[in-house]
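Bench log, entry 3. Co-assembly request; chain sequences pasted below exactly as received.
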Amino acid sequence: MTDATATDTSRHDRQSRRATLGRRVLPYAMLSPAVLVTLAIVFFPMVQTAWMSLHDYVLFRPNDFDWVGLENFRTALSDEVFWISLRNTIIWMGTTIPAQLLLGLVTALLLNQQFPWRPLARALIIIPWALPSVVIALMWVWIYDSNYGVANEFLLRMGLIQQSIPWLADPDYALASIILTLTWQGFPFFAVMILAGLQAIPQSYYEAAAIDGASAWRQFWHITLPGIAGVMMTAVLLRLIWVANSFDVIFVMTGGGPGYATHTLPLYAFIKARTNLDFGYGSAIAVLFTMLLMVVVVFYLRRTGKAVS
Amino acid sequence: MALHKPSTMRRILTVDLPMVAILAFTLGPYLWMFLTSISDESTLFTEGPSLLNATLENYTRLFRTVGFADNLLDSFIVAGGTVIVGLSLSVTAAYSFSRFEFKFKRVLMLQFLLINMFPLVLLILPLFVLMRVLGLLDTHIALIIANSTIAIPFSIWMMVSYINGIPRSLDEAAMTDGCTRLQALRRVVLPLCLPGIIATGIYIFITSWNEYLYALTLGGREVRPITVAVQTLIGEYEVQWGLLTAGGIVGALPATVLFLLVQKRLISGLTQGAVKG
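Structure output for the full assembly:
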């Protein structure tokens, strides 16, 4: 650009050529650090998981890395614990997310009303979201404690139960107790997302409907729900992934027990690798779980892909 | 719904009371934990937690004998490091996504979204093997790298939505005045989206601070972030609930305070894409 000997025209020419080249290269140059790092720390490890899942790889025998093909997957499909975990996973995700959505919707509708302490309520409602999952898990273990827990005491005083229930030690209640905890943790997210959707609905719709004599219920059904359907959809799909990752709460609360009552697929994969050091089999379960989630993810991408383009 | 103003009484019954009930459900466990943490360990099981003989003993014990200060420092290094890595890589990438049209843009953008969608359990096993091979187990770097797998794609998406909010004409004006692209980015766009950068940074900080599974798997002995430390307070035979809940309160405090500070901006950034989509 500072070539002093060049004539004006050729200088201009070169400058613009350089600018075009710059325009073409610059976007990639600015992207490359992020892309390269994610390739190294996300995609490479992911491929490695798939690779490990095709091998017999137990960490305390680090020199044995034998190719076994799909053997790990075949084992998984005939593994009783795998099917128990799959069943629990479906119950776990299939109830946690609707419960969060419903409670979140109610909360959002309330927060969308006019009342004096609304800003305070809106700030406080999100607190569970900012808490570390370990703290959440331990807090609820203490609440569920069979001897001194406040949950039992509360229910006993209300006369709803006759004797203390060991919530997390009883196979019949353990999963449900965890689902309540996860609902508590996640519903504020829905509330906040849905509230944003509610506030994007033009007030004039309601005014017009009221003039036409539509009842509050009809307004909700024909204006509010369609207005927030998109947000709810996105929130549910986002939450699916987050709930899938929230097995740390289960890990801390019950470790998958009693028995296999709270085993879920990601937890099972994690425990296999962590306790049994069986990284081959653990990877296979992780891969299977991911493939199941993928169905959901593809669905999500098709939605967001439309928004991006 | 919107036109006629309901009477105050009706509002209290249909809005205020249900809201109070939901807030009680939301905050109850947290308050219960706090109450337990300021109760005397010896009377906890006989009289239950109470405000009457409140004590800070659990907190002093936490820092004196358990050495919680070191854990706080570990958490701080890991979370701070992740913020630096996440932000420095994502700002230029987000600018590129926001301002340029180029080949493979859509694929690259979706790729970053896709990373967010992969379950953590798929990454934790190979990262452990990788760190073992590299000899990085039980170091801060290992945890920073692991947390970055979540932080980088997330902050790119947040930053794109913030930079999209700044008119293109501003950087074009700066370039007409003789700035290069990068100068325009540094002098015009960055200052304008500073609030967005701060919000994203705080969000990364919170998620890294709260992260547990990576910390447990890749750290644990030398480097023991607060989340792992709290969990180890569960003894083999008995649980010291007073100490444990005090640890929980201390561990949760930084993230909660930061979160309350930026929640408005953070949520508008998070929901923008969703509402539009």
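The first helix of chain B runs from residue 8 to 37. The mean pLDDT of chain B is 83.
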